UniProtKB/TrEMBL annotation:
The chain crosses the membrane at residues 6-35, 64-95, 115-136, 157-174, 194-215, 240-257, 269-294, 315-333, 339-356. It comes from the Bacteria. PANTHER family: MEMBRANE BOUND PREDICTED REDOX MODULATOR (PTHR30238), SLL1022 PROTEIN (PTHR30238:SF4). Signal peptide: none annotated. InterPro entries: DUF475. Keywords: Coiled coil, Membrane, Transmembrane, Transmembrane helix. Residues 212-239 form a coiled coil. It comes from Streptomyces spectabilis. This is DUF475 domain-containing protein. Pfam families: DUF475.
Amino acid sequence: MVLKTFGWSFAVTALGLVAAVLFGGWTAFGIVAILSVLEISLSFDNAVVNAGILKKMNAFWQKIFLTIGILIAVFGMRLVFPVVIVAVSASMGPIEAVKLALNDKDQYQQLVTDAHPSIAAFGGMFLLMIFLDFVFEDRDIKWLGWLERPLAKLGKVDMLSVCIALIVLLVSSMTFAKHAHQHGGTHADKAETVLISGVAGLITYLIVGGLSSYFENKLEEEEEREHEAEEEARAKGKQVSVIQLSGKAAFFMFLYLEVLDASFSFDGVIGAFAVTNDIVLMALGLGIGAMYVRSLTVYLVRQGTLDDYVYLEHGAHYAIGALAVVLLVTIQYEIHELITGSIGVILIGASFWSSVRRNRALAAAEGKGSGSDEKAELSSGV
């Protein structure tokens, strides 16, 4: 079962790591490995969300999503989008950016370094909004209860995440401008670019979130109409046209999943810039992660168990928050790639271990016949 589901992912992982060694030696191998682990960990959250919606769709639409949908939203975003980001930020064509990355790594690295403040501001704001919206939402299951409970109370204030993100951006751009002015460097002119890029990242997040909400509302409307039509047909003694009604709802599910996939892929691409600026290594790491999105989604749908490791979603979002901070800090200061990648792996590993401990504790409590109060306490996190 596992080999059948993950066989292609394992094969792509092996090929990707070998290609990394041939391309840049063991240092490149380490970077691709870190990117792969980070992407796979973040992809688990993506796969959980995908599987939760995908299991409601019929076999035809599941196949469409797992083929065309994954190809468009995951491979398209994760393999093509890094090239587009660099091309736009460095003011060059995508083909020219790829040729430069392959043939003149020093010049390419210099162009990316010059463009890094705007990339970091854009990506940092996008990731920061994902993290803030997650921690400000009140959830039944809490991982770090001592932190998440007060944050959930603060989250009741409307638009708080947007306000905090804009304050962080303003402080970052002002600090960057002051630092550049004191050192008399060429970055003084880029302070405005940092501010504009950060605002663009915020706007992008709001647009993606708005589209997701739109499709989600459409999906709920279609499901409600389908339910009413079924009830009416049964009342009249007629057969329900399940394929037609399911087709409408499934179509909106498909569109909604595409938007969600794009947003998940986008934060993966942006997060990769915090680990490396090498477009080849980025493509290898993100490509491996993209394969695991599909495999994990298929596995979760077939197994039907989406709630075994309840804290992984928290760990993935804390990793996103850490990457957001790293990107904003790297506007001025350099942070080693290994440190950047390790932060996310440690956070997600800790959330996985907490999930395992919670499952063991719940099983022990159930075996002893403990009451629901103890189970509720375990479910609420640390």
